[in-house]
């Protein structure tokens, strides 16, 4: 059974359509990135999964149950975009308070270790840096040993060092066969830290696959050459070509099959091809292409 299922889910806020007929299924044990620009519907999707919002249409299921049932059973942990800590409590007290609310929580020491907080256990919550507070919020999210961990832009406000430590903690937690879904608008994070990337734009599914598949599927390569004043007509019909740009006498062909495009360029046209350059688009280019189209 899938850990997470969205079946034709839409969510309106008044006139705003934040999630638009979204269908997807996530297997247990996977770490999945929900990648999209600001306003794409990431937080709305996560709040739907937690039962904090109800879909306008469609259904959301968590291990075959409703989000409310899954939350009640202690199966869900979440780190939301806005969540305050209780300032007067120490890190240890706060975590212990939250873990006791769950039926089968992790041991306090284990949580502190996983969240890299052992040295900060006695520190008051109001004396923590931004990155340290995020680690406490991560600790609270995993306290109940949830099967499904939802992280909404967890590394916002973290410096590079904190990010590295945070992702190491996330991978430790995920390695126990747990399902992790994290929202991000950082391409590198999605690329480096997930088994699968779900790209959403304007509430719709724009792409779904491994980072490598998404790069390939979005016409991930370019072939460019000096066109001079030769005509560009017909370049867009070469095999593999998904788009053509001509600027300052340089033609850039976006292609899903560099070999086929090159062969046709040399054998199938009478163009004088000079200053040939090949490049592999990175995930960023693929992401931009995908979110622009949809
Ligand atoms: P993301 O997390 O990807 O940045 P959100 O899910 O927060 O996106 O928002 C999706 C869309 O819904 C945006 O257009 C946003 O402005 C709108 N939206 C979010 N929350 C509300 C709300 N409470 N009321 C009205 N519109 C909202
Ligand atoms: Mg958000």
From TrEMBL:
Name the PROSITE patterns for this protein. ABC_TRANSPORTER_1, ABC_TRANSPORTER_2
Entry's Gene Ontology BP terms:
response to antibiotic
Question: Where this protein primarily resides, as one coarse class?
Answer: membrane
- Protein keywords: Antibiotic resistance, ATP-binding, Nucleotide-binding, Transport
| Highest rank taxon of the organism | Bacteria
Q: Is Nucleotide-binding included in the keywords of this UniProt record?
A: yes
GO MF terms, alphabetically ordered: ATP binding; ATP hydrolysis activity
Q: Where in the cell is it found?
A: Cell membrane
- GO CC terms in record: plasma membrane
Q: How does it sit in the membrane?
A: Peripheral membrane protein
Tell me which residues make up the ABC transporter domain. Answer: 4-227
Tell me yes or no: is Nucleotide-binding among this UniProt entry's keywords.
yes
Which SMART domains does its entry note? Answer: AAA
Pfam families this protein is in?
Answer: ABC_tran
Q: What is this protein called?
A: ABC-2 type transport system ATP-binding protein
Organism of origin: Nonomuraea jabiensis
